[in-house]
Write a structure and sequence with these properties.
This is Alternate-type signal peptide domain-containing protein. Keywords: Membrane, Transmembrane, Transmembrane helix. By secondary structure, the chain is of the alpha+beta class. It has two domains: about 1-35; about 55-180, Jelly Rolls, CATH 2.60.120. About 15% of the residues lie in helices and about 35% in strands. The strands form two sheets. The protein has a five-stranded antiparallel beta sheet with strand order 2-1-3-7-5, with no helix packed on it. A hairpin with a 5-residue loop joins β1 (about 55-70) and β2. The N and C termini lie far apart (about 95 Å).
């Protein structure tokens, strides 16, 4: 009798287990957990690259000249410029060549000179300009490789008398030449 009860329970369990397995399999397939696959393909772009441009500014050759009153200008060597002591009536002029590089489609840039950081004596004035006397010059890739002249002029007023502005240091290292990309 014990054996008769065990066998029917086993058949019921087998049917139950089979039903559960079928339901679980159907659920996995429906939920994406199966091996269902969709076709796909891909291609990699070949032989195509782009390059970035360049914007650069370097100081080129520099020429210093000193003029006193109506006298002819005298060239001052760059090695001696730090030993120079100007007096009322002097005009010191620097012509600094600026070597520019501009590479890039749609590239435009402004070249400027900033002398605002120079602390000068009360009777000494500093002026700066680019070719043609402009304070700013617009450049494009067509100008790349060019040397552009920037002129800085330091004038000690000849009307300075007494002991005004003696032994003053004028730091020209604060002059900045800047090349900045312009927005389109």
């Amino acid at each position: 009798m014990l054996l008769e009860k065990v066998v029917p329970e086993t058949k019921k369990n087998s049917k139950l287990k089979g039903g559960i397995a079928i339901a679980l399999g159907a659920a996995l397939l429906a939920g994406g957990g199966g091996t269902l696959a969709y076709w796909s393909t891909n291609q990699t772009l070949q032989g195509t690259s782009i390059n970035t441009g360049d914007l650069n500014l370097e100081l080129g050759a520099a020429t210093w000249t000193l003029t006193h009153g109506t006298n002819s200008p005298v060239t001052v060597g760059a090695a001696n410029i730090n030993d120079l002591e100007i007096v009322p009536g002097d005009k010191l002029e620097l012509v600094q060549m600026l070597d520019v590089t501009l590479k890039g489609d749609n590239l435009k840039a402004d070249l400027t000179i900033d002398t605002s950081g120079v602390t000068d004596a009360a009777n000494v004035t500093i002026a700066a300009s680019l070719a043609g006397g402009a304070a700013t010059q617009e450049l494009s890739p067509a100008d790349s490789g060019d040397s552009i002249a920037a002129t800085v002029t330091v004038v000690f007023a000849d009307t300075t008398g007494g002991q005004i502005d003696v032994n003053e240091a004028i730091n020209l290292n604060a002059i900045d030449f800047t090349l900045t990309q312009k927005p389109l």
